[in-house]
Amino acid sequence: MFPGSYCDELETVPHYWLEVDKTAGGSLFQCRFCYEYLWLPLDISSIVRLSNLMKKYGRDRGYCHYLNGHRPAKLLIAKLQDLRRLENEIEDKREFARIADKILSDKEYDRKEVPKNG
Prior knowledge:
The protein has helices spanning 44-57, 59-68, 71-89, 93-105; strands at 17-23, 26-31, 37-41. It is an alpha+beta fold. The chain has one domain. A 3-stranded antiparallel β-sheet has the order 1-2-3. Strand 2 (26-31) and strand 3 form a beta hairpin. Residues 111-118 have low confidence and may be disordered.
């Protein structure tokens, strides 16, 4: 899912993106305030392709279509999004660490196979 322009639902705090890594032919950004992640391509032709897909299919579907062609980036974003969601859902930090380790070490991770406490 492509992050919106703001960290909060009230649209009072805009994202402040900082590049944290270069991976899978693109750059991984993290918001300084809400810690959300965003991966974007580096070369102009890929940026134009992503833009065209987002115009055609909408922000979220276009981003997902683009990531489908960039499996390493897709897996990374899926893992980071699931970890962020699980961090808020799981109160036991040891359990969260166990699940996080399982997610991060899974080389064939698929967004549809989110671990449920196990």
